[in-house]
From TrEMBL:
Binding positions (substrate): 3-7, 15, 19, 51, 53, 170, 176-178
Feature: compositional bias, Basic and acidic residues: 8-22
Cofactor dependence: Mg(2+)
Name of the protein in question: Isoprenyl transferase
EC numbers: 2.5.1.-
UniProt keyword annotations, A-Z: Magnesium, Metal-binding, Transferase
InterPro entries reported in the protein's UniProt record: UPP_synth-like, UPP_synth-like_CS, UPP_synth-like_sf
Function: Catalyzes the condensation of isopentenyl diphosphate (IPP) with allylic pyrophosphates generating different type of terpenoids.
Residue segments, region Disordered: 1-26
Active-site residue numbers: 2, 50
PROSITE patterns reported in the protein's UniProt record: UPP_SYNTHASE (PS01066)
Family designation: Belongs to the UPP synthase family.
Cofactor detail note: Binds 2 magnesium ions per subunit.
């Protein structure tokens, strides 16, 4: 969700105002995703590296997160959304962690869209914690090197239980990954939008989904193989 700072600076506003306007995009994109039947939506709201931003900006983001968790609570529960979080959430201040934990617990049995907030999240950090926990399991004799295939590896990731990643959208014209879902990206489609996140609303999101629908996902196969598989599936 990139471009909040630039959106604000272009208007002579403090960066925090860009994040605030970005929260409205969060609400709109989440509603749209649910309406069109997205199974799982993951929002990169705060990275492991974002802690190093100026203290006032970090504080403003934490305030916004708390506000969001309180103001969206009813809509999330009413719409059967399951709120989930990935990252080193124990690093969050108590005034964010508490409403987060409460909403996670209260929505745990919901079966609609899974809305995951990536908070204090880093892809490398996720891989390192997975390796650490696998090493611990190996030391205890609970995991052998031969058991360590891609499926077992995935079960140690914070995203364990989420469906495979289909599409990653990065806003604001930047074309990089910035430590997001590094393992899960393997076969994801990428969409880079020039729109700044605070302006990224329903129309911009639907444009990305339309682009995604035009892609041919081959997962290492040839185009002919994929077409054959598609036609078999259509006949079944
Ligand atoms: C990156 O843009 C954005 C962030 C670090 C924060 C994203 C947070 C929100 C959209 C609001 C709060 C989130 C929720 C879930 C309510 P940037 O600040 O790096 O933008 P810039 O590149 O233009 O400076």
């Amino acid at each position: 969700m990139d471009g909040n700072g630039r959106w604000a600076e272009m208007r002579g506003l403090p960066r925090e105002e860009g994040h605030r306007e970005g929260s409205t995009s969060v609400r709109e994109v989440t509603r749209c995703a649910r309406r069109v039947g997205v199974q799982a939506l993951t929002l990169y709201a705060f990275s492991s590296q974002n802690w190093a931003r100026p203290a006032e900006e970090v504080a403003a983001l934490m305030d916004l997160l708390r506000e969001y968790l309180e103001s969206e609570r009813a809509e999330i529960l009413e719409n059967g959304i399951r709120l989930n979080a990935i990252g080193e959430v124990e690093k969050l201040p108590r005034f964010v962690k508490e409403p987060l934990d409460r909403l996670r617990a209260d929505s745990a049995n919901n079966t609609g869209m899974v809305l995951t907030l990536a908070l204090s999240y880093g892809g490398r950090e996720e891989l390192a914690q997975a390796a650490r926990r696998m090493a611990e399991a190996a030391c205890k004799g609970e995991l052998t090197p031969a058991q360590l295939d891609t499926q077992t590896f995935e079960s140690y990731l914070w995203t364990n239980g989420l469906p495979p990643l289909d599409l990653v959208v990065r806003t604001s014209g930047e074309q990089r990954i910035s430590n997001f879902l590094l393992w899960q990206l393997a076969y994801a489609e990428l969409c880079f939008s020039d729109v700044l996140w605070p302006d990224f609303r329903t129309e911009a999101f639907l444009r990305c989904l339309a682009q995604y629908q035009q892609r041919e996902r081959r997962f290492g196969l040839t185009s002919a193989q994929v077409k054959r598989e598609d036609s078999h599936r259509a006949k079944a």
